[in-house]
Amino acid sequence: ATGGLVVAIAAAYTNVAVRFSVDFQGIISGLASTSVWDFGDGTVLSNRPYASHAWATNGDYVVVLTAYNDSYPSGVSAAVTVHVSQPVHYVALSNASPEPPYGSWDKAATNIQDAVDVATVPGALVLVSNGVYAVGARTIYGMSNRVAVTAPLLLESLNGPEVTLIQGYQAPGTTNGPAAVRCAYLTNGAVLSGFTLTNGATQTSGDSVKQMSGGGVWCEAASAQLTNCVLSGNSAAN
């Protein structure tokens, strides 16, 4: 393997939370005999055009991809820096003085959606205290959701599903219908942990999947996750 080498890196994100996995693509032009990823924390991988990595502690990590051949035995490299932090946004139903970005309990949001909306770093934690969260709605695909997680973040309760509820809305008499509110929507990579989802419902017309399915929760794809959750008393027209 001889001749010129050109190396580049495509990173899905360069600013993420601790333990959030970032996908990388190595772009190598020329004949490479071997290649090596170095993630800046002691982790090294060889001969992979695609790689994913998460970091355990805060910091700025230089990710380096080096390609080698007989003409370049010392290698040709490309690098990208990933900033890793641990942002936390707090939610407490009875807090008297909420203040964005809700970075402490004394400045906590009183509405889950408010905290989700300011969590812009992929993998950020939205931590929710005890209560029944039953106000507000966010429309996705023409369907109202009590909480819509539209970014890849972790939405987690402080004390578990027994004491932390997301409550949708069921139309009196018909349960499902135009006024119904689903409990939660999760986009790709979002995680919902430690909640009871209850009293959610859907519309009775429109798109059979996006508007009439998933009264408790509707997930964009398999990369969305529910863990330690209870789904109870929800309804869907489809």
Structure, explained:
With 238 residues, the chain is an all-beta fold. Helices cover 3% and strands 41% of the residues. The chain is built from one helix and 21 strands. A five-stranded mixed beta sheet has the order 2-8-7-4-5, with no helix packed on it. It has a five-stranded parallel beta sheet with strand order 9-10-14-17-20, covered by helices on one side. A four-stranded parallel beta sheet has the order 11-15-18-21, with no helix packed on it. The radius of gyration is 22 Å and the shape is elongated. The mean pLDDT is 97.
Give the topology.
Elements: E1 6-11, E2 15-17, E3 22-29, E4 34-38, E5 44-46, E6 50-53, E7 59-68, E8 76-85, E9 88-91, H1 112-118, E10 125-128, E11 131-133, E12 138-140, E13 143-149, E14 154-157, E15 164-167, E16 182-186, E17 191-193, E18 196-198, E19 217-219, E20 225-227, E21 230-232
Q: Write the element-wise H/E pattern from the N-terminal end onward.
A: EEEEEEEEEHEEEEEEEEEEEE
Mind summarizing the main beta sheet? 5 strands, mixed
In what range is the share of β-strand residues? 35-45%
Shape: elongated
Q: Strands of the biggest beta sheet: in what spatial order?
A: 2-8-7-4-5
Distance separating the two termini:
58 Å
Tally the helices: what do you get? Answer: 1
Number of strands: 21
Give the averaged pLDDT, no decimals. Answer: 97
Give the radius of gyration.
22 Å
**Helicity, in percent?**
under 10%
Low-pLDDT runs of 5+ residues are none
Supply the helix-strand structural class: mainly beta
